[in-house]
Write a structure and sequence with these properties.
The complex is a heterodimer of chains A (about 325) and B (about 220).
Chain A (H helix, E strand, L loop, with lengths): L4 E4 L3 H10 L3 E4 L5 H6 L7 E4 L8 E3 L5 E4 L4 H6 L1 H6 L1 H8 L4 H6 L2 H6 L5 H4 L41 H7 L3 E5 L5 E5 H4 L18 E7 L6 E7 L10 E7 L5 E6 L9 H6 L4 H8 L12 H13 L5
Parallel strand pairs in A: 1-3, 2-3
Antiparallel strand pairs in A: 4-5, 5-8, 6-7, 6-8, 9-10, 10-11
Helix pairs in contact in A: 5-9, 12-13
Chain B lengths: L10 H10 L12 H4 L12 E7 L2 E7 L5 H8 L18 E4 L2 E4 L12 E3 L1 H4 L7 H8 L9 H16 L18 H7 L10 H14 L1
Parallel strand pairs in B: 1-5
Antiparallel strand pairs in B: 1-2, 3-4, 3-5
Helix pairs in contact in B: 5-8
The chains are: A alpha+beta (about 325), B alpha+beta (about 220).
Chain lengths: ~325, ~220
Amino acid sequence: MKLFSYQRASSVVEATALAAQRPGTRFIAGGTNLLDLMKLQIETPAHLVDVNGLALDKIEPTPEGGLRIGALVRNTDLAADLRVRKGYAVLSRALLAGASGQLRNRATTAGNLLQRTRCPYFYDTNQPCNKRTPGSGCSAIGGASRSLGLLGVSDACIATHPSDMAVAMRVLDAAVETARPDGRTRTILIADFHRLPGATPHVETVLEPAELITAVTLPRPVGGTQVYHKVRDRASYAFALLSVAAIVHADGTGRVALGGVAPRPWRVEAADAALPRGARAAAEHLLAGAKPTEENAFKLPLATRAIAAVLAQPRG
Amino acid sequence: MAEPRDVIINRRDLFLIGAGAGVSTQIPAQPSAAASSAPASAMQPAALHRVQMNVNGELRKLQLDPRTTLLDMLREHLALNGTKKGCDHGQCGACTVIVDGRRVNSCLTLAVMHEGAGVTTVEGLGRPGHLHPMQAAFVKHDGYQCGYCTPGQICSAVAVLDEIKRGVPSHATADLASVPLLSAQELRERMSGNICRCGAYANILEAITEVGEGA
């Protein structure tokens, strides 16, 4: 690891101020992704601000009947929370489908949203990668792209967002609450949080420098049968080749989002509307404009089949 | 249950004995210290941070380069070599220890992030003559071949049984409203973060099941 300075923050104000004072600062919470990348020198922050002492580890009801999940709530605790299991089962299911028990014990809600792609070329510092080294080129296009994206991708980058949790958050219409160094706070809809790569794949979210996620909020529960269906190369502890987060009501209406296919959780309004007409109809809208490579074109029929598998589940 | 035979000489001692006897096997004196923990001469020296934590029931006070992972602290600074460095990237689980009652990958966390924490390693679970039931069950069921992943497997397994007892759900839990079962399916899923290159999974499963059923 490159040398860095380390400081513990004891408040949101202190954390954002420290980050604002020193360019090259990264916040560290669980560290399960950041430290991995620092060991490989893909991330080389000059300063680390430890935010684990910020008391953002509570899950509280909101006045609107939803939940406010503190940024530091660990994935294990969020998945196990009885209110989440009952009202937002798709979120519990998505979290439990991700990583390992050890990693979920450390990984946080905010960190999960901010984790970086597992594109093999992003991880290989000997290869060009526009996300890691802007302007260096993309080795994935024309390379080993089986696991990579086909929706929302650009000529500069075809990486996917690796999170399972974020796909469930997207189908639940979650919102991200942040604080900035000047004390201002804002709420960003999960739909707007992750940016598409375009010509700048290294800019992955709409967060400003030194802006800190403080919580993720969920609207009141919408009921329905909630399913997270993850397709991967082994039965456990593997990233998604493709995943489906869905909420389906008894009358066949509902919501659906895809993971493992795009730089952000992929949800299309028209696909939700088409859901009562079946998997093929919904998939047609979700996959509109897809730009598959030869190696990942299998994800197109897989998406339809995975949605069909979700719709075939018994609905209560 | 018969008490398994306690191993008196461990692998490290054996290497040291071998080296002392002039065996020609080439073993670097400190294979990983320079790369991971102590700054090499060409690198800037780091400001050391004071950190204290309770490790296996003992208060330990250290001054550490902030880059020191919890794993390197245990192995290189406290000589607790039971915890193993496998991949060093959170993929294999060999470094699993229990921090404040929860299993974590000690390779993916900095020691300075654990001021005041309580850490239990495989050495803290049991000692020769006083093995933890999980350690004894691994011996009884032959839950290893080369043994490199075993300390991580054992720490993980102890925490898994606690997670099931506390009702923490897993990907294998059929009904999120129900209490998770002590089933093979549950244990396999929950242990998926611990890779065994020798493939001792079947025996590991037997060992954990026996301890879980006896608890």
